[in-house]
Specification:
Blueprint lengths: L18 H31 L6 H30 L6 H34 L4 H4 L2 H24 L8 H8 L11 H44 L4 H38 L9 H22 L4 H11 L20
Helix pairs in contact: 1-2, 1-9, 1-10, 2-3, 2-5, 2-9, 3-5, 3-7, 7-8, 8-9
Length: 338
């Protein structure tokens, strides 16, 4: 049996995995980290560089990409070492800082997803008043809330040890050990984290996207019926409305599917683990945390790769055309679509 800190009593036990297991784990996690960094960096460069993309919606997407990039840069590399080695080599203070930053950025990413759904709701359901309701100031307030609330919640909970409230004796006697860094929640803090970081923003997303889907479907049906009443000359419009309806359903399904698949298992286990006397294996907790991180990897694909403008921007970045004079004024599309 190998310990994380051999010379200290009460040290955590180090993983006994062989290199046959450890090396593939490191490779997969490094690939995930690099994909997260590259994908979100491309979104940040595209939206920041091209003036045509400086819209309220893209400001939200850009802010979310910054959150996801920072998660890949500041959090995931240290989580990788902890997950593979089962040891923490970076000190107790940095453990608290890492855990706080982890919770903050993960929650901030989910908050951004929720506010993007609000933005899309007004764009689809109230397009005539969209620009008046979703102004730059409103978006800046959304971004400020998405950063500030998770930061206050995460750093307050970890540094004030509110996550241990009601389970201090259990934690220090049976879970805490030297050379380890644990994401631990008591019953009260587990419910609070579940409600704040997942259930409330997730419910907002689910309700809004459900309403968007049914309204978009109704609009497409209305266009179809109107075209049928006019004449056969409008068959192209009917086909276009059907394609838009299918695309809307597909996009919304992917958005909610990715979010739920990535985050639901982790938060479900977080809220039930304290009520089952912490019987969920640490290995499973690690797997679920990385599933949550995967959401930040997939966000740029879901929210940016689906847009044709992003594909054009990506080509210009790869071929170095962004370094040309006045490249920021390049037209990526003919008209801005909400």
């Amino acid at each position: 049996m190998t310990f994380c800190q051999e010379a200290i009593n009460g040290s955590c036990i180090k993983n006994s995995w062989t290199n046959i297991i450890r090396i593939p784990m490191y490779c997969v996690m490094i690939l995930l980290i690099l994909t997260t960094l590259a994908g979100n960096l491309m979104v940040i460069i595209s939206i920041s560089h091209f003036k045509q993309l400086h819209t309220p919606t893209n400001m939200l997407i850009n802010s979310m990409a910054i959150v996801d990039f920072l998660l890949g840069f500041l959090v995931m590399p240290y989580s990788m070492v902890r997950s593979v080695e089962k040891c923490w080599y970076f000190g107790e203070i940095f453990c608290k800082l890492h855990t706080s930053t982890d919770i903050m950025l993960s929650s901030a990413s989910i908050f951004h997803l929720s506010f993007i759904s609000v933005d899309r709701y007004f764009a689809v359901c109230d397009p005539l008043r969209y620009k008046a309701k979703i102004s730059v100031l409103v978006v800046l307030v959304m971004i400020a809330i998405s950063w500030a609330v998770p930061a206050i919640f995460a750093f307050g909970m970890i540094f004030l040890e509110l996550n241990l409230k009601g389970a201090e004796e259990l934690y220090y006697k049976h879970i805490h050990c030297k050379g380890g860094c644990f994401v631990f929640f008591s019953k009260i803090s587990g419910i609070l984290a579940f409600m704040t970081s997942f259930y409330i923003p997730g419910s907002i997303m689910l309700c809004i996207y459900g309403k968007i889907y049914f309204i978009a479907k109704g609009q497409a049906r209305s266009i179809k019926n109107a075209n049928q009443k006019i004449q056969n000359g409008f068959e192209e419009k009917q086909q276009l409305s059907r394609r838009k309806e299918k695309k809307a359903a597909k996009t919304l399904g992917i958005v909610m599917g990715v979010f739920l698949i990535c985050w639901c298992p982790f938060f479900f286990c977080t809220v039930i683990d304290p009520f089952t006397d912490y019987t969920i294996p640490p290995f499973l907790n690690d797997v679920l945390i990385w599933f949550g991180y995967l959401n930040s990897t997939l966000n740029p694909m879901v929210y940016a790769f689906f847009y044709p403008w992003f594909q054009r921007a990506l080509k210009m970045i790869f071929f170095g055309k962004v370094f040309k004079r006045n490249s920021s004024r390049c037209q990526l599309f003919l008209e801005l679509n909400t």
